[in-house]
Amino acid sequence: MLKKAFYIIDFDSTFTQVEALDELARISLSKHPDKEAIFQKIEDYTNLAMEGKLSFSESLAQRVKLLEANETHLKQLVTRLKKKVSSSFSRNKAFFKKHADEVLIVSGGFKEFITPVVSQYHIKKENIYANTFVTTGDGKIIDYDHANPLSEEGGKVKLMRQLDLQGDLYGIGDGYSDFQLRESGLIKKFFAFTENIARESIVSKADHVTPSFDEFLYVNNLPRAISYPKNRILCLVIGDVPAESIALLKKDGLSIRHKAAFEEKYVGDVGMILLADGEKIEDDKLKRAVKLKTIGYLGNVKNKFSLQTCNEMGIVVFDDPKANPRNVSFLPKRMIDFMNKGTTYLSCNFPNLQLPAIDKSHRLIHIHKNVPGIMAQINTIFAKHNINIVGQFLMTNATLGYAITDINAEYDKQLFKSLKKIDHTIKFRVLY
């Protein structure tokens, strides 16, 4: 019999993008004449504790003293934090609903601001473990409950020993207190969460580095909003590409490599390529880039690489034939939109298709040669597998057919195998 799994998740810089006490200081001290110096002290105390260079209890005590906060400030903080939930946690709300009994938030932060934020994600209040403030009658924060084990050095270890959960425990966090759970032997694996911050002293000790919550769900074969984590998609940037273009791709969570040329070692693994004007791709390399899904070209693509080869391999190409300055940002956005939603709008070689996002569904892409009867075969396969189609979109040009199908049922690998075996199929993939 399989052991029950529990997921122990940190709050600051993990579930949310920020350190909440740092944010609270920026609210409560906004009119203080020495605010910048105090902000820096609070951030320093935070980082020293997260890196294991200062005891957590000492760090917490010093930060609370400096806050000068009250309950009105807390309300403002909660509003801010709700907008700062980490992207990969936000899009996986369905996971938290399905696993509400197994998810625990364990944090050295405070329930007063954690509970209103995580409760929106179906996390049970009884599964939220954090510190609590001590306030005066007029709502001023003057201290915290020192009897709470989470206020002490090694507090997460002490708490988890008290809880004595029976099963396999997995920890997700960015700081030293999260690693201590692994060091103590209380959890099976520690996942260093680096979507917001990567602390080398913690990353080097982790069982697995997870740049997103999608990655954690993927490696543990758990239900997730996207089928394949973006951090596993290699995006190659070639030549003198503007920093703004690269920043957009990084922001989407892709694994970026910026190189002067298309190096041989990347040919077999690259999923996306963005090229500066004047760069070329040899046809031999293009034909061997079997994972490549889209190319963006910051110039006129004519004679730079073979569009015919791209068609044969199902590679969607976006280019900038008129050297429009706005395409520095527009082209990467088109590539991202294709990877995330399947949209081919303004592609220079594919049928142009704009797609709405459909909730609670799986989106499947089928690229094929434009010959009669393909859609009938696709839908016959769905019928054989008792799959209900939520939405379906098809666009063609002279040579290619591009079909998107949204389904609302669970599927098995045999469905995919059947779709891939249809004659004249060029490429098939699951978006989410």
From TrEMBL:
Coiled-coil positions: none
Protein EC: 3.1.3.3
Pathway linked to the protein: Amino-acid biosynthesis; L-serine biosynthesis; L-serine from 3-phospho-D-glycerate: step 3/3
Domain of life from the UniProt record: Bacteria
Cofactor: Mg(2+)
Enzyme class: hydrolase
Name of this chain's protein: phosphoserine phosphatase
Catalysed reaction equations from the record: O-phospho-L-serine + H2O = L-serine + phosphate; O-phospho-D-serine + H2O = D-serine + phosphate
Cross-referenced Pfam families: ACT_AHAS_ss (PF22629), HAD (PF12710)
Domain ACT: 363-432
Organism from which the protein derives: Pedobacter albus
This protein's UniProt keywords: Amino-acid biosynthesis, Hydrolase, Magnesium, Metal-binding, Serine biosynthesis
InterPro entries registered for this protein in UniProt: ACT-like_dom_sf, ACT_dom, AHAS_small-like_ACT, HAD-like_SerB, HAD-like_sf, HAD_sf
